[in-house]
Amino acid sequence: MRARLKSVSLAVGPIFGSRWMIPRLDRFGEDLPGIDIELRNSPRITDASMMTADISVDWGVGQWVGLENTPLLKIVYSPVLSPSLAERLGMPACPEEVARFPVIHQQDRHEWQEWLKVAGCAGMPLTDKATIVDTNVVIQAAIAGQGIALGIFPFCQSEVDSGRLIKPFDIDLTPTRSFHLLTRPGARQRREIDEVCKWMIKEAALNA
After folding, report:
1. Residue 177: CA atoms inside 13 Å, Cβ hemisphere, count?
2. I need a labelling partner for 86 at 20 to 30 A (CA). Which of 80, 97, 139, 174 fits?
């Protein structure tokens, strides 16, 4: 008789789930065959009362009230655009030429303003196309040629590798926030939870 699998629930946001965890499910099954992972959608978490799963992945600076957190994955921002947009408007040769393109923002204009500072053109006016909340939709809008967007790496590296998006500059913005693993105090004393956490940390290190 096959041994009963240990169940571990993992709550993640849409971008992390679709572009980091889902591509690794086969490897997870190979590495941890005794564990049944249950993926859930995670809200933003501020304290332990908002934990909906055994493990959560959230975005922040490392301060969650009543929870244990482990740094998991750092990301960087860099502009990306589709080949069709580059063909229509010309490839931007320098950061100042971003001003020629319709710009897609995520959430607000903060990340673009911070990237412009890193690129040496702080305060440069941009031609706003749209502000989109969902990161997956931002990436899709860029692929569709709707504008130039700040790609989140490593999440959109596969689109650059495949040629669906172009990364025109080797100028990256590293935010102060990053992805963290969150668990309730003492939760990792359960062997299966600890094994999932260790596996995720090991996988994230491969992108470092």
Report:
1. 10
2. 174
Give per-residue pLDDT as tens, 81-140.
999 999 999 999 999 999 999 999 998 889 999 999 999 999 999 999 999 999 999 999
Structure tokens at 193: 């939870």
How far apart are alpha carbons 32 and 100 in whole angstroms? 49
Task: Say if residues 126 and 103 touch (Cβ distance below 8 Å).
Answer: yes
Q: What b/e sequence results for 149-174 when a residue is b if at least 16 CB atoms lie within 10 Å of its CB, and e otherwise?
A: bbbbbbbbeebbeeeebbbbbebbbe
**Which amino acid is located at 30 in the chain?**
E
Q: What is the CA radius of gyration of the chain?
A: 19
What tokens does 147 get?
């504008």
pLDDT in tens, 31-53: 999 999 999 988 788 888 899 89
> Which among 65, 63, 52 is positioned nearest to 12, based on CA atoms?
52
Confidence at 1, pLDDT banded by 50, 70, 90: very low
Burial of 122 (0-12, 13-18, 19+ CB in 10 A): exposed
Please report where in the chains the tokens 């995520």 appear, as a residue.
106
What is the DSSP secondary structure assignment for residue 19, as one 8-state letter?
I
